[in-house]
Amino acid sequence: MNAAAKLGAYVLGLTVVFGGALGVGQVAGPTAAPAQVEDHAAMAPQEDHAAMAPQGEHEQTKSDTPRGLQVSENGYTLNPLTTVKAGEPTDFRFTVTGPDGRPVTDYQVEHDKKLHFIVVSRDLASFQHLHPVQDGDGAWSVRLTLADPGVYRAFADFAPVGGGNLTLGADLLAAGDYKPQPLAPVTRKAEVDGYTVSLAGDLVPGQASKLTLSVSKDGKPVTDLQPYLGAYGHLVALRAGDLAYLHVHPEESVKAGPEITFYAEMPSGGDYRLFLDFQHDGKVRTADFTARASGAGPAQPGTSGHGH
Ligand SMILES: [Cu+2]
């Protein structure tokens, strides 16, 4: 499925969720009485919903809870198996168990991998995007170092075969003297390893907000970015305060920079930390930003979602 279709499916998911929040009647129609849809003239007000509902149902869970806040969802549970000591590289193991209580062994490949594992400190000062390997019995393992004592959040982003995409989150606790960092101020420029990444676009709660990140080095635009996980960049966005993990969809591009475009759906106003992974000269680097989503909150049904 291409990025545009994926975005479309997610927007449909939102439409269903908002409809459900306001009144079941709006969304019950097409699923309860699909046979009536044939008469387009009579069904005009519900036509969109009727045509779109099956795809939305297939791609998107119905929950309006942002991802990553739950250790268990839809029968799937993230189970850390290893205690991590600060500063010591560890072979970190975990399983994802399914509705039958057994470790899930079959996953769909998304962005070149069966499972993406994101580990951040709860103060959002550190970020790792890792790709664990699966052993024969379904357990995952990955080399993990938590540099400093503190509270960390681990996210497993995956799609079991036969199920929709899920992001489960679990806290990892590294004992020791914890010195939390304040959230970095809102900024539109990040520096990493001699690269400057600038952020254009505004975060609007409840809408697919277009974000454009431009990479330059020594003042010159970088036009030979290398694909990483099937795209020129990967963006993870986390909400400050509870680390809600947000959907971010890259726009497919044939241009290898300097611009990388994403669509992010912020569930509320507030501050978010954005982490952009990009690859150049054979090395993956992460540029991070604090961005503020401002506005009244999620858009009303009918004002968003149909424009894409
Ligand atoms: Cu990944």
Write structural notes for this entry.
- The chain contains three helices and 19 strands.
- By secondary structure, it is mainly β.
- Helix 1 (3-22) crosses helix 2 (24-32), helix 1 crosses helix 3 (47-59) and helix 2 crosses helix 3.
- 14% of the residues lie in helices and 37% in strands.
- The site of copper (II) ion has 5 residues, from loops.
Strand content: 35-45%
Quick one: biggest sheet? 6 strands, antiparallel
Structural class: mainly beta
Low-confidence segments: 1-61, 298-308
Helix content: 10-25%
Global Rg = 20 Å
Give the cofactors and ligands.
Answer: copper (II) ion
Q: Please report the total strand number as a whole number.
A: 19
Tell me the span between the first and last alpha carbons: 16 Å
Order of helices and strands: HHHEEEEEEEEEEEEEEEEEEE
Count of alpha and pi helical runs: 3
Mean pLDDT: 81
- Overall body shape: globular
What is the secondary structure topology, with strand pairs?
Layout: H1 3-22, H2 24-32, H3 47-59, E1 72-73, E2 76-80, E3 90-97, E4 115-121, E5 127-130, E6 133-134, E7 140-144, E8 150-158, E9 166-174, E10 189-192, E11 195-200, E12 208-217, E13 220-221, E14 234-239, E15 245-246, E16 248-250, E17 259-265, E18 270-280, E19 283-293
Antiparallel strand pairs: 1-2, 2-3, 3-7, 4-5, 4-8, 6-7, 8-9, 10-11, 11-12, 12-13, 12-17, 14-15, 14-18, 16-17, 18-19
Helix pairs in contact: 1-2, 1-3, 2-3
This protein binds copper (II) ion.
Residues 113, 116, 129, 131, 229 line the site of copper (II) ion.
Structure keywords:
binds copper (II) ion; mainly beta; 14% helix; disordered N terminus; six-stranded antiparallel beta sheet; 308 residues; 19 strands; five-stranded antiparallel beta sheet; 3 helices
